Prior knowledge:
The protein folds into 3 domains: 1-210 and 224-254 and 297-385, no CATH class; 256-294, no CATH class; 387-446, no CATH class. The protein has 14 helices and 12 strands. It has helices spanning 5-33, 49-56, 63-71, 85-97, 100-114, 232-252, 267-275, 299-316, 320-324, 332-338, 340-368, 388-402, 406-409, 418-445, and strands at 76-80, 116-122, 129-133, 138-141, 151-157, 160-164, 168-174, 180-187, 195-199, 256-260, 289-293, 377-380.
Amino acid sequence: MALSPDDAVDAVQELRGVHAQEREALDHVRRYWKGRQALPAVIPRSAPQEVRRMAQISRVNICDIVVSSLAQSLFVDGYRASARDDENLPMWEAWQANRLDRWQSGLHRPALAYGASYAIVAPGDPQPVIRGVSPRRLTAVYGDDPDWPVMALERIERDVFRLYDEASVFFVAPDEHGRLSVAESYRHGFGVPPVVRFLDEVDLDVDDEPEPGWGNDMSTDDVVLGQVAPLIPLQDQIDLTTFGLLVAQHYGAFKQRAIMGWVAEDESQKMAAGASQLWTFPQPPSEIGFHEFAETNLDGYIESREAALKYAATLSQTPVHELIGELVNLSAEALAAAEAGRDRKVEERKNGFGESWEQVFQLVGSATGDEVALTAQVRWRDTSARAFGAVVDGLGKLAAQLGVPPRALWRMIPGVTDTDIREWEALAEDGDAFADLRMLLERQGA
């Protein structure tokens, strides 16, 4: 049901509280994603400045590596509604007009990090406007239909919002008395709120979490999906291990000597004694004792951190060489096997994000008057670790041995976009015209 201006203000008042609660949890995830998490809690406030500085540089951020590893494997290269290119072209023109070759990663990354992100479609001239929005700025409320929200609230700036419902967009801001009111509104004409949700994973129990158990101080409101939240405990362990390594390295990684019964008169005499190869003292030998302390062994810290990184790689299905940097003379087949787990995870995201992009194209088609077939789908770039020659050889065998038309295989070549394919087809058609002319001249000459 479409909202009136008064109902829109009431909805904003209600949803802004929900948004503030979500924003608090997402800000916590944001700090871990970008490597700005809190210092290890074991550091006392009275610690020396150099210790606090070591704590600051002990952040070894793995969360961003996990998110980037997935995001860099998720690129839409084309859109296909039917075998006829003229039917696919309007949707792809809207994609290019909105420069989504660049901005698609900005929409995929928050979906991976936070668990969700949103695309908003607005009428435009000559093409509809498509833009991504982080869940830290937008809250959507869903009912029985999991695809389209009942309404959505976007925070523009402090106390300034946009509210989307099935019929209109309301611009809500404080009036001259400081009360929220509708400053502007327009009908968008889509029939549904023009907000599309991109989910990292589908969890049917996300709204029905169990009560916290013993030793778990999280409430049901603190549950955040995405790639970063499950890695927060491991990230804290790695930061704490790195902090211990830096402290041990700074204070105990070298041998220390002690002289009992003799005290330097000043700092220069102390430094001279430390640098001298021959030490002389006025006291009798019986009154002076020499002691030496062995250096601290750092192997335990390094092995502990490496074990935590390997466990993080297993938990997140990230290739272990991307976290610890061990990659020595691997063949293409061995590299593909090492990245098999990540590739399966990427394929799952392609299915979910692909459906969301198809919803976006449905809104674009509604704005431009172009009908979008239910069989329409986006085409993803192949980023798997396979030798290019092996791929081309396999495609050649499909054409030669199984009779698959070569043009149908062009889309399977890694890195090829729809723009490339249209150019190839145009060149092929020109080449066919010249071949027909040559055959005609040969027949006439005969």
